[in-house]
Amino acid sequence: MRYLTAFAATILFAGCALAQNFNDRPPNAPNQTPAFENQTRAPALRALRLRREAVVEGLEHPWGMAQLPDGSWLVTERPGRLRMVSPDGTLSDPIPGLPEVDTESQGGLLDVAVADDFAQTRRVWVTYAERTPENFTSTSVASGILSRDGARIEDARRIWQQTPWPAAAHYGSRLVFDNDGGLFVTTGDRGGLDSRHEAQKLNTTVGKVVRIDPMTGEPMGAGIEGAMPEIWSWGHRNMQGAALSPDGHLWTIEHGPAGGDELNRPEPGKNYGWPDVTYGEEYDGNPILEGLTQKEGTEQPVYYWDPVIAPGGMVFYDGAMFPDWQGDLLIGGLQSSSLVRLELEENRVTGEARHLQNIGRVRDVDVAQDGAIMLLTDEQNGTLFRVTGR
Ligand SMILES: [Ca+2]
Fold first, then answer.
1. What is the pTM (predicted TM-score) of this model?
2. Ligand 1: distance of its center to the CA of 121 in Å?
3. Pair 247, 200: CB distance under 8 Å
4. Is 18 strand, coil or helix?
5. Residue 331: count of CB within 10 angstroms of its CB
6. Which of 46, 87, 286, 389 is least surrounded by CB atoms within 10 angstroms?
7. How many of the other CB atoms lie within 10 Å of CB of 65?
8. Residue pLDDT tens, the chain, 390 long
């Protein structure tokens, strides 16, 4: 009897620990206070046990994925390869025809996207690190046509290029189509103590959300006076996740400093603070500039993490397999090594769960046609996982 009681208590304790452990970790910046309730450390939700299968293993640092109408997936590998994964899990050879990619440091082939009319147009978009003749680098966007047999990309050309900078870090970048004919591209601040200040300048596209015409790359930004015409929002650090919400609004997630990852709902023409106003601190523990977390004229994040999760891609769940999660935000956690799920209400976070703990560095997350959740782990031996339920 005593044994059974102790056993039951252990199970109960383990259950509690599962739900709460990530909120018990000490913050990097304990003296900072959120601007409103549940802006950080929202109530921890139970992490259900989820069933997962590896669709493909042996991907080298996969970064982005996009589903095609026949249920196959285009997947990028950072060393510069685009591949197709068939519904039966067959991995294609690298698909040639994309522009040359610079693979130094955090560069490489990054996101991939297709539009709703792919079945007719076969058009594909990618983001990648590009090296300029001056030996600077930029986040660039190219578009081309996937041949009918899927063997090559044809007529690929660069349609947009970020203001180049002499660094090889913080490239962003995600591609998101909106419902009004625009293509959002998220960029990064290029990772330097000098370059970060470019995020506050409106004559560069460093540290910005930009919006362009997906066919021509022409600017379709917020129309900010005196700004580059493709800028949508500014003051961002390194956005590797972006998604359109069910009501058609752009949301982004960015790698912050230590203790400062943040989720935003970027409004056109607004300043999201970096580096002048931010949660968190430098990696060495010093404050960032004046250490401000709030300031007139800058927008607060919807949510922030301290300590960080290191967010990759994200998606709003829309599918039949997890009806309770309809409209929830699913986020790939690199450092958290998990699938992070946020429950939302009126554009605020009401709860946070961490699923599939220790699955690996989740760089991208998407939803398959049947409602399964697809995850990409960014490892030397990376995996495309399919998550199908309990
Ligand atoms: Ca911010």
1. 0.94
2. 37
3. no
4. helix
5. 27
6. 286
7. 24
8. 334 433 333 333 334 444 447 889 999 999 999 999 999 999 999 888 899 999 999 999 999 999 999 999 999 999 999 999 999 999 999 999 999 999 999 999 999 999 999 999 999 999 999 999 999 999 999 999 999 999 999 999 999 999 999 999 999 999 999 999 999 999 999 999 999 999 999 999 999 999 999 999 999 999 999 999 999 999 999 999 999 999 999 999 999 999 999 999 999 999 999 999 999 999 999 999 999 999 999 999 999 999 999 999 999 999 999 999 999 999 999 999 999 999 999 999 999 999 999 999 999 999 999 999 999 999 999 999 999 987
C-alpha of residue 261 to centroid of ligand 1, in Å: 9
Q: Which residue has the tokens 């230590």?
A: 258
First to last CA, the chain: 31
Answer yes or no: 61 catalytic. Answer: no
Supply angle C-alpha 275, 276, 279, rounded to 5.
75
For residue 357, give every residue at least 6 positions away whose Cβ sits within 8 Å of its Cβ, in sequence order, or none.
Answer: 47, 337, 338
Whether 25 and 7 have beta carbons less than 8 Å apart is answered as: no
C-alpha of residue 201 to centroid of ligand 1, in Å: 15
Q: How many angstroms is it from 311 CA to the middle of ligand 1?
A: 14
Report DSSP letters for 109-135, one per residue.
EEEEEE-TTHHHH-EEEEEEEEE-TTS
Q: What residues are neighbours of ligand 1 (ion), with CB under 5 Å?
A: 272-273
CATH code that applies to domain 62-301: 2.120.10.30
Q: What CA dihedral angle connects 333, 338, 343 and 349, to 10 degrees?
A: -40
Q: What secondary structure letter does DSSP report for 266?
A: P
Expressed in angstroms and rounded, the spacing between residue 155 Cα and the centre of ligand 1 is: 38
- Ligand 1: distance of its center to the CA of 300 in Å? 6
